[in-house]
UniProtKB/TrEMBL annotation, chain B:
Keyword Magnesium among UniProt keywords: no
4Fe-4S ferredoxin-type domain residues: 303-325, 355-383
GO molecular function, one term: metal ion binding
GO BP of this protein: lactate metabolic process
Lineage per the UniProt record: Bacteria, Pseudomonadati, Pseudomonadota, Alphaproteobacteria, Rhodospirillales
NCBIfam families on file: LutB/LldF family L-lactate oxidation iron-sulfur protein
Protein name from the UniProt record: Iron-sulfur cluster-binding protein
């Protein structure tokens, strides 16, 4: 309603001009003061995030796919949704899992076995009864237990697999742009390659954090990286798994978003 | 035209007699106050940070019309559609039109106080559209058919037992959850995930809208805000016109103070910054985003240089948690979208003093809210100003003068006359010490006082008398 627009802006302008305010200057020193020696940043991030139930894993560039898949298998996850178009996604899909457990190539041709059509039922190998089951028994073969984890690429619009996304995905893997020492927060800029729901809908969110991408504060990160020049569709700070205290101040984790947040520190 | 006045005194009397309610509030408020105190243990950091946050909000208000235009330009450039509404009726109509165009019959909503002002849920339900609150506290309150009793913790008036009972009554498969907060939370998760998946529209509030970049900032812990703004094909965000800030850099001071003041956590689980609908090639996110900028009386609040400070508020709720009145009677007694100190200064300005003239009186003027307000709003001064407005007709506030009473005016006139004439003062005080104690407590004006307190006893001799006796000169 453009009438409303004109009326509102007219009133604001007229009354402001009748009584202008001179605001005091904004002194950002209290934010600039939030600094930690480089070696203290990571321990602080870890401490703060662990206080709100975030889990941490240590890994290297060489072994993180193994660390992640081992962890998820032990956690009882049957599948992992990942971003095939990112460098991390490419690394993960190149990691030698037994071929029958990989779906990337099938998925390219349409209905991969991990995908149900948007109205179809979940495939039988994706578990639906949530919460997540406990640890799986060791596979009878005695081989490495990654064999039970299925990789599913997020390579199509959400509309094509909404139901499976909500009912059949155990874990999602994303990268991060770094982390913030002041508040213990991960920085994520989801993209066309790494969609927004990867870090929200799966019950476990696994996030890779490069140990050299640490900032003192949110303010410092946005200034150093010149965020204001070009904001992405969505920018996020994530500081733990989803939580609520709406029932009598009792903290409960995993209310709508991930029940578990697992940060993999990659050195 | 005078709308029916809301009777806070009667509602608070009932609340005070509800020991369950008082216990629930006392416990919650004590917890919130002590957790907040831990966050602000460093006094210097607190003082400098709140000065910074106040300057950010003041600068936004100083340039409000320009910033709103800049915000509109940048949102539009980013592909977000902007709508302006002078009244809540206009905002409701805009929302309905968007829902109709999207063919949506189900909306999921993240916490938005502006939509409480609009009574949006009731409006849409009248038009056969289901709106589901997805913040757990709001969901509980919606199931219960009541209103939020706190702006941050909507269901704080209920304990686990009461919530378990409610779930059992209203939800089919709630029998197995017992009285365990985690199990109840999990049940809500399962139900709401179905709704996120199927909703045609997601709705949210806005914590700050950045003019410089055309960005909407939302903070939350549960992830429902992200669900509502990412999963449905259409997202509608509602904001009061004061929510704009100038620069992206102005967001960190607000994010630093809001969660610490509100719940004593260093930051919320999610800080969600949205600058555009789904772009070409992106695989999720809404295809349309609409922002509804609501006035609903805010531009008249803005018009008065003293009352304008009301609009600095970042809705942290800390003033409620620290208010000696709110913590005793709870949020429902105010019967308003915003209870507690901020509600007592905001709601009368929005809805008028005829209906809300009592609100500014539900205050002891203890100043606790002013001391903890992260953006330094002079709440108590504004409260005093509204008391004056209520009895003096002026152009500043809706229905000012609505509570003007000839008797009261006369009493104060007499009071002033007595205190400005030495002779009148002497006669009056002597008379009071001589016969005051004989006056029955049931006299018309005295009764208001003596019905809840014992009648004060007048001393047989006035202070002046005693001083003169002691030989103190010039009394
Ligand atoms: S008035 Fe101040 S303390 Fe109260 S909600 Fe607003 S910002 Fe918070």
């Amino acid at each position: 309603m453009s009438d409303a627009r004109a009326a509102i802006l007219g009133t604001l302008r007229r009354t402001r001009d009748a009584h202008p305010v001179t605001p005091p200057p904004s002194d950002f020193t209290p934010l600039a003061d939030k600094q930690w020696p480089p070696e203290e940043r990571l321990p602080r991030i870890r401490r703060m995030m662990e206080a709100v139930h975030t889990e941490f894993l240590d890994a290297t560039e060489a072994d993180w796919p193994a660390v992640v898949t081992d962890f998820l298998t032990r956690a009882g996850a049957a599948n992992l949704l990942y971003a095939p178009g990112t460098a991390d996604g490419a690394t993960l899909s190149a990691y030698p899992l037994p071929p029958r457990e990989r779906e990337g190539t099938h998925a390219q041709h349409g209905e991969g076995e991990g995908f149900a059509g948007s109205d179809g039922p979940s495939p039988s190998d994706t578990p639906s009864p949530f919460p997540l089951r406990g640890p799986l028994p060791s596979p009878e073969t005695g081989e490495e237990n990654t064999a039970s984890l299925t990789l599913i690429p997020y390579d199509r619009p959400i509309e094509d697999f909404k139901q499976q996304m909500f009912e059949g995905i155990d874990a999602g893997l994303t990268g991060t742009l770094g982390a913030i020492a002041d508040t213990g927060s991960l920085i994520l800029w989801p993209s066309a390659d790494e969609p927004r729901l990867l870090s929200l809908v799966p019950h476990i969110h696994v996030a890779l954090l490069r140990a050299d991408a640490l900032y003192d504060s949110f303010w410092q990160a946005m200034r150093d990286q010149r965020w204001a020049d070009a904001m992405p569709t969505n920018a996020l700070l994530i500081s733990g798994p989803s939580k609520t205290a709406d029932i009598e101040q009792t903290l409960a984790y995993g209310v709508h978003g991930p029940k578990r947040l697992v940060v993999v520190i990659v050195r | 035209m005078a709308e029916h006045a809301v009777n806070f005194a009667a509602a608070s009397k009932a609340a005070l007699q509800d020991s369950q309610l008082r216990g629930n509030f006392r416990r919650a408020m004590d917890g919130l106050m002590s957790k907040r105190a831990v966050q602000f243990a460093d006094a210097k950091e607190w003082h400098t940070m709140r000065a910074l946050a106040a300057s950010v909000r003041l600068r936004a208000l100083a340039k409000l019309p320009e910033l709103l235009e800049q915000l509109e330009t940048n949102l539009t450039r980013n592909g977000i559609q902007v709508h302006w509404a002078s009244t809540t009726a206009e905002a409701n109509a805009i929302t309905l039109a968007i829902m109709r165009k999207a063919n949506a019959t189900l909306a999921v909503k993240g916490k938005s106080m502006v939509t409480e002002e609009m009574h949006l849920n009731a409006f849409l339900e009248d038009h056969d559209i289901e709106v589901l609150e997805s913040d757990l506290g709001e969901y509980i309150v919606q199931l219960d058919g009541t209103m939020p009793s706190h702006i941050i913790m909507p269901a704080i008036h209920l304990n686990t037992k009461q919530i378990a009972h409610l779930f059992k009554q209203k939800i089919k498969d709630a029998a197995s959850t017992g009285e365990d907060a985690a199990a109840l939370t999990d049940l809500a998760r399962r139900i709401l995930r179905q709704k996120f998946m199927n909703a045609g529209v997601g709705m949210s509030g806005v914590n700050a809208a950045v003019a410089e970049t055309g960005t909407l900032c939302l903070i939350e812990n549960e992830g429902n805000g992200r669900m509502c703004t990412t999963v449905p094909p259409v997202h509608i965000a509602f904001m009061g016109l004061e929510k704009v800030v100038e620069k992206l850099e102005d967001v960190p001071p607000i994010i630093s103070l809001l969660p610490r003041s509100a719940t004593g956590q260093p930051i919320t689980t999610y800080v969600n910054m949205i600058s555009s609908p789904r772009k070409e090639g992106e695989k999720d996110g809404p295809r349309e985003i609409h922002v509804v900028i609501l006035d609903n009386g805010r531009s008249s609040v803005y018009a008065d240089p003293e009352l304008r400070d009301t609009l600095r508020c970042i809705r942290c709720g800390a003033c409620m948690n620290h208010c000696p009145v709110y913590t005793k009677v709870g949020g429902h007694a105010y019967e308003a979208p915003y209870p507690g100190p901020i509600g007592q200064i905001l709601v009368p300005q929005m809805e008028g003093l005829a209906k809300r003239g009592e609100m500014p009186h539900a205050c002891t003027m203890c100043n606790a809210c002013v001391e903890i307000c992260p953006v330094q709003i002079p709440i108590v001064e504004i409260m005093g100003r509204l008391r004056v407005e209520a009895v003096h007709p002026s152009a500043s506030v809706k229905d000012s003068g609505a509570r003007a009473s000839k008797t009261e005016a006369l009493v104060w006139k007499g009071w002033a006359a007595m205190n400005t004439s030495p002779l009148a003062y002497k006669i009056a005080t002597t008379a009071m010490s001589a016969v005051g104690n004989a006056a029955p407590g049931s006299l018309p004006l005295l009764k208001e006082w003596t019905s809840v307190r014992s009648k004060p006893r007048f001393a047989p001799r006035t202070l002046h008398d005693l001083a003169r006796k002691k030989g103190i000169p010039n009394v």
